[in-house]
Specification:
The chain is of the alpha/beta class and 258 residues long. It has two domains: 136 residues, 3-Layer(aba) Sandwich (Rossmann fold); 108 residues, 2-Layer Sandwich (Dihydrodipicolinate Reductase, domain 2), CATH 3.30.360. It starts with a strand and ends in a 7-residue tail after the last helix. The model has no long low-confidence stretch (mean pLDDT 96). Bound molecules: nicotinamide-adenine-dinucleotide. The site of nicotinamide-adenine-dinucleotide has 25 residues, from helix 1.
């Protein structure tokens, strides 16, 4: 890295950990941006994303979905790589991310922990092996009470992996927020249940329920630092990388092309 790594959302829970992990990795922290009312300490505060992008080789972005489209434009214009961890993106936001990835390397992952990404890889393989007519896929997640989006980005990522393994369109089989007289379960549906409470960092269970057996894989994150170390690893990996939309599995050498 010639210039260094910048952070969008640097005053946040993830932003502060990311700043520590950039330094711990021996890389240069260029500084960060946050909302005007937030306090940024111990590093350079840039006025906006364009200034941060101009000063950085790569920006770690764990801010808010409302900022994603503007960040996509500014980073692509500056030729700055982007490690995007923000969740709750709309379809339009995701289109802006894909557009930026035509000009710069973008690593976009709903969860940067190594363990969750291994579970994602397994989810796709299990779904391919377990027929949807017999094995009902359900995804149960729990997070701290401050979380604003549901189901979590990781839960949706798991659902997409199951849909991919089954060769179906995720949006057509997603079933979340069941309430009231919902009728019997649709064969092939991928169900979601979101629990919120306390200070749970992140728990995800993928369950395949058949008449004769249940198979469940659970991942529990105890410390947000699991995401921060993975995201910094992704940031260092972008160096010299061609423009494109990459996942954490690509960073771990387990992507589709590996
Ligand atoms: P947080 O609320 O503690 O931090 C977000 C920070 O972004 C705040 O300091 C806020 O002021 C700032 N911010 C909001 N809008 C901004 C804008 N327009 N420009 C610049 N800064 C802005 O939240 P958090 O727990 O740190 O999580 C941040 C995001 O990262 C959320 O979307 C969360 O779901 C996601 N997240 C992703 C992963 C992952 O591995 N991908 C892990 C944890 C959290």
């Amino acid at each position: 890295m010639d210039k260094g790594i910048g952070i969008a959302g640097i005053a946040g829970r993830m932003g502060r950990l990311l700043a520590e992990e950039v330094t711990a990795a021996g890389a240069t922290l260029t500084g960060g941006i946050d909302r005007p009312e937030a306090t940024v300490e111990g590093t350079t505060r840039f006025p906006d994303i364009a200034a941060l992008a101009a000063a950085s080789d790569v920006v770690l972005d764990f801010s808010h979905a409302s900022a994603t489209a503007a960040h996509a434009q500014a980073l692509a214009a500056a030729g700055c790589a982007w490690v995007l961890g923000t969740t709750g993106l709309s379809a339009a936001d995701e289109a802006a991310v894909a557009e930026a990835a035509r000009r710069v390397p973008v690593v976009y992952a709903p969860n940067f922990s190594t363990g969750v990404n291994l579970v994602l890889a397994l989810a796709e393989r299990m779904a391919a092996a377990l027929p949807a007519e017999h094995y009902d896929a359900e995804i149960i997640e729990m997070h701290h009470r401050q979380k604003v989006d549901a189901p979590s980005g990781t839960a949706i990522g798991l659902g997409r992996a199951v849909a991919k393994g089954r060769g179906v369109v995720f949006e057509e089989v997603k079933e979340s927020g069941r309430d009231g007289h919902t009728g019997a379960r649709r064969t092939g549906a991928i169900g979601f249940a979101a629990l919120r409470g306390g200070q749970v960092v992140g728990e995800h269970t993928l369950l395949f329920a058949a008449g004769t057996e249940h198979i469940a894989i659970t991942h529990r994150a105890f410390d947000r630092r699991a995401f921060a170390t993975g995201a910094v690893r992704a940031a260092l990996w972008t160096r010299g990388r061609a423009p494109g939309l990459y996942s954490m599995l690509d960073v771990l050498g387990m992507g589709a092309g590996d």
